[in-house]
Amino acid sequence: MSGFELPTDRADLFSLGLKLLDKDYFIGQFCPEHGVDPTDLFAKTEVFGGLMSELRASGRFLFGMPVVSKPGPKVIIEEPDGNQREMIMFASNDYLGLSAHPEVHAAIREVVENYGVGAGSSRVNVGYSGIHRSLEAKLAKHWGQEAGLLYPTGYDAISSTIAALCGPNDRVIIDASSHSCIIDGARRSGATVRMFRHNDAKRLEAQLKRASDKGEGAILVVVEGAYSMDGDIAPLDAFVPLVKKYGARLMVDEAHAIGVLGARGHGAVEHFGLEDEVDLIGGTFSKSLGATGGFVVGNAAVLSYLNYLSTRIVFSAAFPPILAHGVSKAIDLMEADGGLRERLWENIRYFSDGFRKLGLDLPEVEVGAVPVRVHKDGVMVDFAAELYEAGIYAIPIVYPSVPHGRSMFRLAMQAGHTTEQLDYALSVFERLLKKYEIL
Ligand SMILES: Cc1ncc(COP(=O)(O)O)c(C=O)c1O
Q: I want to staple 69 with a disulfide (CB 3.0 to 4.6 A). Which of 54, 76, 172, 369 is the partner?
């Protein structure tokens, strides 16, 4: 027991559960307000543990339940009491279903005996294998860049690149909807960090002008190719001329765009045909490519510098070579089988049209997840619980992930979702959207 009185209102309880996952809030505000002894380093962890147990016991904290089946559009999850439940999955970023693809599995089996399970060391030590080298070469060639560099995760690729390249004299300009890895890297770099309103070219230009008026140091602009929460893509065609005008550099994080956008699934840069105009492209293997690991492609001299000055390369083991081989196969499948992407887009269109037919105001969806905006914060907990009871696994997005009044469900689509699954989900949403007077 934490000894704290938890809110009795379920929406407040749920909201508190999410807020507790923000370290700045928990240590900076919650602990001082509740008199947690700041001189005992572990005191706060006891409080945190107690609160979490109570939240879990309330049955209102759906995050992090183990999936005990193969990944895919339908999964089995295990509840705290051991009960197993079949769910239609709308929370996985394995958009193309490549994590469970038999050819990817065969590729991994092919090399596991010769390469083992782990890399054994960091890339600059002895964790770099022939498999890593050929994946880097493939990424560079296929993404139309001079060189490629692998990182243990996508988070590392983006955050460490920014932190290694920029210093206190520099300025990093980022979108207001940026993923945590971009914010983290920009802060760690020691550079001055400026944000501009999401996808707003005018605001970007204002920040570029302000930064270039300062004179000293360099300017790096970092944006994402696709914003999976906002449901839109970066207007790179508008951003590129601005970045050039002010002599800045542009890095694009293609995490949610790979496999979803571009003729071969390379992302937003390919979608806009800007391969020669963007300075650095970063990405992850953890979404459409169904594995784990991250990369950056770009100029060879820049990447060689990053290889030795990215802390997440030098001080962390490389990701397993067997996975690098699996990722290489997944890239081949993604590029060769345009049908996978077509099916994903058919599903995105079918599902978003379905919501529009129900009467939901849904702008064009440009990414792999359909944002269903509920707006009423107070109903989210019950809404999410009823979706769960109906066998639909969809994570509610509430404050502080989005501003108050902007609560939503981010429904991540998969190429493998069947029309029956989507129709069923639409019928459940119709019932609940009406019940909670959103329609
Ligand atoms: C925009 C963006 N960049 C980077 C990452 C991190 O990728 P990884 O899972 O490989 O660490 C994510 C993951 O959520 C992301 O959404």
A: 76
Q: Residue 356: which CATH number?
A: 3.90.1150.10
CA distance 356 to 351: 9
Express each pLDDT in 377-400 by its tens digit: 888 878 988 999 999 999 888 877
Kindly state whether residue 413 falls inside one of the protein's structural domains.
yes
The predicted structure's pLDDT at residue 1? 40
174: containing domain = 101-336
Q: Same domain, yes or no, for 295 and 158?
A: yes
Q: What's the whole-model pTM score?
A: 0.93
Question: Is 194 touching ligand 1 by the criterion CB < 6 Å?
Answer: no
Tokens representing 151? 């990182």
Coil/strand/helix, residue 236: helix
pLDDT per residue over 201-247, tens digit each? 999 999 999 999 877 799 999 999 999 988 999 999 999 999 999 99
What secondary structure, in 3-state letters, does 83-101 show? Answer: CEEEEEECCCCCCCCHHHC
Q: Is-contact 428 394, C-beta < 8 A? A: no
Catalytic-residue membership of 287: yes
- CA–centroid distance, residue 154 to ligand 1 (Å): 5
Tell me the Cα Rg of the chain: 22
Evaluate: CB of 267 within 6 angstroms of ligand 1: no
Strand partners, 151: 294
Q: Which residue has the tokens 């950056």?
A: 296
Q: Which of 129, 159, 228, 316 is catalytic?
A: 228
DSSP code at position 250:
E
